[in-house]
Description:
A: Cytochrome-c3 Hydrogenase, chain B; 4-stranded antiparallel β-sheet; 7 strands; B: Beta Polymerase, domain 2
Amino acid sequence: MQQSNRLRPFFENITFDRADNEMILNFGPQHPSAHGQLRLMLHMQQEQITKAHPDIGYLHRGMEKMAENMIYNEFMPTTDRMDYIASSSNNYGFALAVERLIGLEVPRRAKVIRMMLLETNRLMSHLFWLATTALDIGAMTVFLFAFREREYLMDLIEDYCGARLTHSAVRIGGVPLDLPDNFIGDLRKFLDKLPENIKDYEDLLDTNRIWLMRMENVGVISTEMALSWGCSGVMLRASGVEWDIRKEEPYELYDEVEFNVPVSDKGDNYARYKLYMAEMRESAKILYQVLDMYEGTEPALMAHAPQYISAPKLDIMTQNYSLMQHFVLVTQGMRPPVGEVYIPTESPKGELGYYINSQGGAYPYRLKLRAPSFWHTGILTDLLPGHYIPDVVSIIGTTNIVFGEVDR
Amino acid sequence: MRAYTPKDNVQKKPYYTDRYWVAPQVAKHDVSSDEVFAADLEAIKAKFDVLDAYIQVEQMVVVINAHDNFAVIEMLKNERAYNQLSEMSAIDWLATEGKFEIFYQMLSMTKRKRVRIKCKIDEKESIQSVEKLFRSADWSEREMYDMFGVVVNNHPFMKRILMPDDWEGFPLRKTYPLQGDEFAAWYEVDKIFGKEAREIIGPENRDPARIDRYDTERFSRLGHEVPFGTDITQGEPDTPLVYQESEGVFLIEKFDAEKSVVISDRDR
């Protein structure tokens, strides 16, 4: 503490007076490159980190508690607030978990639209990742370029569901809307241009001396460490484990589309950067195939299950029984069967899982959100020691953590 | 007479309940229907007591005794190739059984299978940490302690993770109200000013959408601005809007809808 009657230097963040010359540096929670509300307590010897304590919880809103006090459909907009960079993937994970619990089959057109949303969200998330990480490291141009492309995607999503950030664009049992007329053409236009955009980013970064110095051989995660810490997504694949839930445990139409799973065995920041770039190209590839699938699907958008899902609007407006069902489902909520389910999906950040324990009531008895970023933050405890302060920024950058998801 | 509200479960209850409603069950399949799971279950059964085992939604659920948790997970990791602990947490059954249920969600990447190991402990009982096997349990167990108050033995850093260190109560228990208890309501006031300041400061207003239309110190209405702190309970003075650009400021022009252009296609 500062004592006003003594003339001693006082710095808010740094404690100097330790016997063994150890310094404790308080990084965050308001640090601009902490990607949200991350507080890191770093024990330092000179510039080198000897111990790291990530401190989280600054964005804790108690989503699991909220879920226990809400009907299932009410919880959907709350899932937007987890990984708010790619909200549709959260919506989708939750919808899929409830559908598997009930045992619903979703119409094919809804599946196609969901695939489009999931992959556009993956692109948005990866572009955002590239932009912010490059900005943290000082590459302002890449930030502007990537945000420009992300803006187009956000406009597309806005055309579809009216929201740019918190989409709620997926419903339990399907999707709420069909694609607007311009959607397919606009998305195709965007995808045609994307390869040259990605090439622009790579031209700026791949041979950039500063970028390579900050990325190569920094933040190396071994395979054992990645598995032990429950890493998933790019964090796992950059460490040499070929595991993509879209490929291994396919959901939706992922078993019908062709795509590769990029893997690297380097485990460092640069490997993760390369994987994000490769994944963007793969997403584009998937989107092209899904765009072709859209034509020729039946127009139904929601599953037919009167006990759980409201009828289409036309039926509600014309048929008394549908209206009654809808009224009951909106006021009381659906009551899924008794049982429990854990459904993992491959969100842009990694394995996003929803564990739902239903006791047959309108509210879930227990809902556990398995957010990938939670463990990608935890791994900093073991990853940071031995690194230097500038590396902290680039490592946090490539872990791609989002605090809505860490704290939930 | 006041309506009875149970104290052991203060979660929201449905307004309408059907006495004759019998909830359907999610199908539980026999473990022998899947070869891989059957072999895993045999291996567990050879060494440990298995209280129940079934396959639900393509994943095997094995219920074991709580004191076996470390050994079972160690065996699954080292001998049965379950190389990742995706998730673990607790479920509060205190109101009905007086127990916590702990589940470990495990994944085998070579077999592409997922197994859920479950066990039950009493409220005051503690459980063995599996942090030595999976580092991911370090944070999960801290979260479980934080949310449920389940103490984990042999954990390297048993401390709250999401809530503040000096928090009272365990938020995910069914006895904990959604809006928070009295401690939660006064947390900041107690901590910063002390308990004696509660009366002076008053309860914190946690409704961020609350607007007092007569409060001119904290709220303003666009187009009806009045000077700070003016009393408008007796009717408000008419405040003419003055924009600086109407006076002619360098480089700033007044918006003209006629001259503006709407971009319809952004050439994606």
